[in-house]
Design the sequence.
């Protein structure tokens, strides 16, 4: 069985492929996690811009093979966890596929909730089942705890800035928002899988 994570932004050339590659790097060793990305207004078949490729390369990741694709309801339905890069994307996803509401978060939102919940393994010892089942249970636990976790003073702190056609500094800021969130989420899901 496979646990599927979908990352979503607008064009699917900057933020969501960066999150996809970072999560793949963090979770790839588990062997049963599949990570993909798509865009709400995808620049279909375009690759990651050069500033994004350089940042990924500085982390030892190669994004040259990425090609953007358009988000569809079937792509959302197939995902066990959907990570939007902004509240706007999250809204578009749940409007497209209302059944995905409980498993759709912004990436920074889920990282914040995961830190609040703590080690998912502690709360999921009764979940049993396969590692994939426990990861799905961790997503549902986060959905239940979403409203209880401390909220940022500025709601925009749940979003990742869009660096497309902006400066290298904007790309770096976007990358620096995605990387720690991806690491926190990977630890949370890995803890659940191994509990």
Sequence:
């Amino acid at each position: 069985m496979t646990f599927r994570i979908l990352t979503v932004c607008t064009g699917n050339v900057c933020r969501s492929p960066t999150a996809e590659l970072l999560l793949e790097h963090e979770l790839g060793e588990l062997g049963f996690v599949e990570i993909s990305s798509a865009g709400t207004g995808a620049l279909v078949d375009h690759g990651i811009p050069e500033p994004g490729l350089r940042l990924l390369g500085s982390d030892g990741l190669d994004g040259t093979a990425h090609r953007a694709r358009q988000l569809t309801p079937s792509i959302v339905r197939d995902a066990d966890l959907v990570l939007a890069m902004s509240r706007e994307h999250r809204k578009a996803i749940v409007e497209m596929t209302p059944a995905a509401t409980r498993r759709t978060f912004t990436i920074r939102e889920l990282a914040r909730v995961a830190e609040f919940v703590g080690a998912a393994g502690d709360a999921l010892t009764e979940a049993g089942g396969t590692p994939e089942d426990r990861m799905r249970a961790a997503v549902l636990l986060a959905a239940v705890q979403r409203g209880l976790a401390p909220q940022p003073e500025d709601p925009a702190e749940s979003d990742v800035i869009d660096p497309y056609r902006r400066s290298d500094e904007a790309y770096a800021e976007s990358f620096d928002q995605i990387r720690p969130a991806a690491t926190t989420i990977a630890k949370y899901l890995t803890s659940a899988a191994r509990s």
